[in-house]
Design a protein that fits this description.
The chain has a domain of about 90 residues: Nucleic acid-binding proteins (OB fold (Dihydrolipoamide Acetyltransferase, E2P), Beta Barrel). Helix content is about 25%, strand content about 30%. It is built from three helices and seven strands; from the N terminus they run H-E-H-E-E-E-E-E-E-H. It is elongated, with a radius of gyration of 24 Å.
Amino acid sequence: MSRKGRRLFFIGLILGTFGIALGMVLFALRGSVSLFLTPSELAERQLSAGARLRMGGLVKEGSVVKLGPQSITFIITDGTKDVAVSYAGIIPDLFREGQGVVAEGVLASPTSSAVNQLRADSVLAKHDENYMPREIADSLKKQGVWQGGSPNSSPAPAQRP
């Protein structure tokens, strides 16, 4: 085998090994990949039951029903469509009606109602978008790009552990 042939063989061997490793990584991660959708996007896509997804929106007013100390059902809405969510676990402190929330879980088989259902295994409550640590707000004020409140107002101080 000539020198050029050996070089091509090793380059092909390295590329083949890299391709196999990449394929194995993608195969291993396929179960942990989840889509991020709003209720309207879910209605458009019409995913089948068992699909893993992450749902974002607002907790609909009057929809929260506590079934036990760590079990809850509620409805996520984007103003147009709704998705019913059932969750068993520790409920975040910031969770409340009208607040932004992200629920990750598995799409349940449709019931007689027209509302999709999600069996969540994690629920994340979004905190106030207006919160910003003092250091960052001061830096933005110095740069002249501060957009929070009046220019003379100071942001809420950051909580330190």
